[in-house]
Amino acid sequence: MGRTKKGAGVQDFGEDQASAIAYAIQVAIKQGVLDGLSDSMKRLIMADGDFQAQLQKALSFKGVFDELAQKDDPAKWAQDAITKWHDGRATIFAEAGATAAELAELERLTGLKRVDAANEAAKAASEKTRAGRELEIQIMELTGRASQALAATRAMELEQMDASLRPLQERVNALKDQAAATEAAATLEAGRIELLKELWAEQGRESVLRLHQLQAMDESHRAIQLEIWALQDQKKAAEELAAAQQKIADEARGLQDRIDQLTGNTVAIRERELAAVDASNRALVQRIHALEDEAAAAAKAKAIADEADGLQSRWLQLIGDTAALRERELSALDPTNRALMSRIFAEEDRQAAEEKARAAAEEYTNSLRETVSGLSDMAQRIRDIAQEIREYKASLTEESAVAGNGYARTLAQFQSTSRMAALGNENSLSSFIGDAQAFLASAKENARSSLDYRRAIGMVSSGADSAIGGANALAASADAQAAALNATIAQTEVITSLGGSTVDLLAATNAALTDVVTPAIEDTIGGGIDALRLEIAGMRRDATERRDEEKAEAVAMVTNISAVRNILDRVNRGDSLAISLEDLISVLVANTTAQPVPTSEVV
Fold it and tell me: What is the pLDDT of residues 548-564, one digit of tens each?
């Protein structure tokens, strides 16, 4: 072996069989004996060098395309491999002269291999699609298509199963479906029976229920069940009778408890309560009763104390004892909160004092405004009267008088009116023209010559000048008083608008009263009184027979002056206003948030 005959062109390989085989293959390739090889493979095999290495290269080259073909179509690749296997074995069988039986076995084995290969290919394909199909099955289950999901699951299981086992699995699936249907029917029937039992129970058809149970029971057990039911019926009847009797007793006890409660018979109620509990627990119930009595007594005492406390608070409110009320309120608080409440009281006192002072200041300014209005009206009336007297004086002629009588009386009346008008008496100023006309009429009637009458006209003219002067002085005095009061009002309003304290307001008001208003009014009144005294003395010297009349006129003048002083009293009552000025200022000066002055101290 491994040898060839020597001769021309004959190769001698000696003992190297592999080299001989390789040479033979190369010769076969060259002669075209071996078909199915690509040109690329032929070039690799026929290349110079070690034949085994070149053959391995050729096989590696071919392996790339074989693996790719297997990847592209695994089923075809498996069947092609079986075909090659079969063809190789068929050649061997033919060379061996195999019998028909032996060839049949080869074909049977080839068929089994093809089935296995087909199953493996189907299984591999199923594995690739398994994940997607499982997701589809989950979707079916979630969307309520349980039967479709079960069918798809079973189909996937059958595909992965050996073909010989599939009929058995299908039989198992059929039996499962049959069992599930039977179970579902049994469940429905059981549900129907339960509903019937519930219906019979509601209808009170106990006999029907028991009959149904007996029918479903083995015959050997029925007698025992009937005996059980008989015992249950006896026990139930006894329990119902006892329950009815207990209900009557409980009802009677409840009614008696209500009667005892309405009549206040607590002793009887507690005796029944003690009798109803076990003897070992009666001491505890008695302890409970004692604690209830203590709690009731404490509650009653507290109610009485609270009632007394409320009445005492009402009494303190009625008598205005704010200090006592606050002491009670403080004592009712926790000690940690009393300082805060004291601050609240202080702030309340401060605000109340300020409010009271503001109200007094407002009342005061309103009074001033009324006084100013009255003074302005009076000044205007006096000016109007002065103007009338002025016009009357300008109209005086020897023909002005009309017939009259009572010369002495009209003269005295005119002189009195003239003197009072010169002093600024408003009533005299108002009656000046009328009294002057009456005097001139009497003077003209009693004049011995025109000179006497002209003297009377001169007297009237001079009196008119004095009356005009008195009127102007009275109007000017009223204007001065009004101006001073307006200044005080303006100062008060400015301080108030600027947010000044009440102390500043009252101090400014007091200064205005002391420095401006009071001196102006007192100067006017003092001068009027002095002039009045002189006038009264002159009147006494003139004629004693007219004393009563002069006194009456003096009283009228004093009344007029008293009216003016009353105006002063409305804005300045000596050393106090509606609230004592000194006291109020001292209170407001000392009044601070830290140390408030209670409203009760403001007089």
Answer: 544 554 454 445 445 54
